[in-house]
Structure formats: structure tokens, C-alpha cells
């Protein structure tokens, strides 16, 4: 059968034992990029009778081999990375998007690539690039990324993706099946429970006029009443992904007619945003005793 594809500088043949599909490849690139191929070649070269063999049969379908061999010959660059602006005076506490998901390898293809990379022990630089592609999908499909990274023993990606997972009760039972074990499910539950309690505590402790500082003599009572009423309602509705400062900022219309109240309100919301950003949002930030 003619090769399905011939890579540059081909000097070796890889063949699918399952369907007979053949590939002309560069042997050195296979050995350089994979510990498994390196060990195979070392073992074969040590046997004089097999040293001249130029065909390697693998128990993989041709479609999987095509993906694996292209990965070894032409490793993909990492996805495009956004230039993140410093938070500065921004109030929003929502998570930034680090990578442009449109430039990332699609998840179904990436799943196959990662499984093959794990099976054939690919070079760490290739795994690092694939990990960046996987992480690029976390903001849009966090639970899938979390489950896949745990299955493939990628704890850094699991921890990074954990911050994008929305409340677990928003998912269906079928969707949560991507989480490989009960302890892994429980870890997310612990993180989200901790965040909700911590965010509630931050909100209920933050005063509009702390210690009377910046108090408005004209609108003091009405301003504090509006602040207190709103934060009590919000505290009962907080979820792990709630933008607490952003929700409180919706009160701005009440204070904008008074410069003194407006200044105090802006300062209070900014302080609230700062404190909320310090609340753990990833598994690796979770206190061990919680």
C-alpha cells in the first residue's frame, strides 16, 4: 500500500498493524520526540538481526498514527496569548481569559493528541504546548478540561481550570461524569463552598463609611441603608463565580448625585473588589484545613 503521507527527510516506515496504512517518516524525529520510540529503536538496534529493519508496525489505527506522527514532525505552537492589562483601578473581579480559544486545537482532536502523547511519552516541550492548548478551553468548558487533565495526570492544568468551573449544581449528572473520581468531585465542592463563605464574609464586613471615614452629613442614613440592604440581599445569593464588587457597583446611580457619597461608594467598591480578588479561586490556593 502506498504511504498515506510522507514527511520531510523520510528514511523510515511506520505501519498500522490494524489497517495496513503506512507512513514514511524521519526516524530521528520520532526518537527525539518520544521516549517510547527511542526505547524501541534502542532495543531493535541492539539486535543485529533487526538492525536493518526499516518498518515499524504499531497497534494503532492509521487515523491515530497520522495525528501522532504529525505531532512529532511538526509540534504545534502554543495558542495565541492575550496581553493582560494590569487590574489597576478596575472593579471587575471576573477571571481574565489568558488564551484566544479560536487559536487552540479543538477539544476532540486535543483529547486524542494528549492520550497519544501520554501513551508514547512525548517530550515535555510538546506536552507543555498541548497543555496550553487544553487550558485555552478552560473558560468555555472548564469541567471537561478539569476531568481530562486529572485523567492524564496534569495537576497544574487541573488546578488552573478549577477556577473556571461554575457551581456544580449547574451541571447535569451526565456532565459531571467527566470528573474521574469522587475525591476529585469533592475537591471542587470544597473549593466552591469555601469561596462562597469567604465572599459572603468579605461583603458583610465591608462598610460604606468605615469608622465614619468620608461620611456624608446630608445623606448618611439613606446611603448606609441602601448599602446595607443591597449587601444583605446579595450575600444570600452569592455563588462561587459571583462578581461581588460588580453586583454592588450597580448601586452607583443612588450615589452619583452627591460627590461625597459617590467618593465613599467608589472607594468601598474598589476595596471590596480588592479583597474578593484575594479569596482563593483555584485548588492549589485552598487552605489544607478547610
TrEMBL record:
<protein>
    <recommendedName>
        <fullName>BTB domain-containing protein</fullName>
    </recommendedName>
</protein>
<dbReference type="InterPro" id="IPR011333">
    <property type="entry name" value="SKP1/BTB/POZ_sf"/>
</dbReference>
Amino acid at each position: 500500500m502506498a504511504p498515506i503521507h510522507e514527511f520531510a527527510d523520510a528514511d523510515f516506515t511506520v505501519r498500522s498493524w490494524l489497517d495496513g496504512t503506512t507512513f514514511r517518516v524521519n526516524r530521528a524525529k520520532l526518537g527525539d520526540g518520544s521516549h517510547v520510540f527511542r526505547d524501541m529503536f534502542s532495543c531493535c538496534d541492539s539486535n543485529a538481526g533487526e538492525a536493518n529493519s526499516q518498518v515499524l508496525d504499531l497497534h494503532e489505527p492509521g487515523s491515530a498514527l497520522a495525528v501522532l506522527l504529525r505531532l512529532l514532525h511538526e509540534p504545534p505552537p502554543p495558542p495565541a496569548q492575550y496581553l493582560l492589562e494590569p487590574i489597576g483601578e478596575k472593579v471587575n473581579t471576573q477571571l481574565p481569559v489568558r488564551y484566544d480559544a479560536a487559536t487552540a486545537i479543538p477539544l476532540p482532536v486535543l483529547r486524542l493528541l494528549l492520550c497519544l502523547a501520554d501513551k508514547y511519552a512525548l517530550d515535555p516541550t510538546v506536552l507543555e504546548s498541548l497543555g496550553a492548548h487544553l487550558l485555552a478551553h478552560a473558560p468555555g468548558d472548564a469541567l471537561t478540561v478539569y476531568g481530562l487533565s486529572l485523567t492524564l495526570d496534569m495537576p497544574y492544568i487541573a488546578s488552573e481550570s478549577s477556577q473556571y468551573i461554575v457551581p456544580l449544581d449547574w451541571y447535569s449528572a451526565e456532565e459531571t461524569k467527566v470528573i474521574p473520581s469522587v475525591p476529585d468531585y469533592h475537591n471542587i465542592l470544597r473549593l466552591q463552598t469555601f469561596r462562597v463563605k469567604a465572599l459572603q464574609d468579605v461583603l458583610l464586613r465591608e462598610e460604606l463609611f468605615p469608622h465614619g471615614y468620608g461620611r456624608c452629613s446630608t445623606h448618611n442614613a439613606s446611603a448606609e441603608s441602601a448599602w446595607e440592604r443591597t449587601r444583605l440581599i446579595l450575600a444570600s445569593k452569592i455563588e462561587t463565580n459571583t462578581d461581588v464588587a460588580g453586583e454592588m457597583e450597580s448601586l452607583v446611580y443612588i450615589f452619583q448625585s452627591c460627590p461625597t457619597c459617590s467618593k465613599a461608594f467608589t472607594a468601598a467598591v474598589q476595596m471590596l473588589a480588592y479583597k474578593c480578588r484575594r479569596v482563593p479561586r483555584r485548588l492549589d490556593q485552598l487552605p489544607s484545613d478547610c
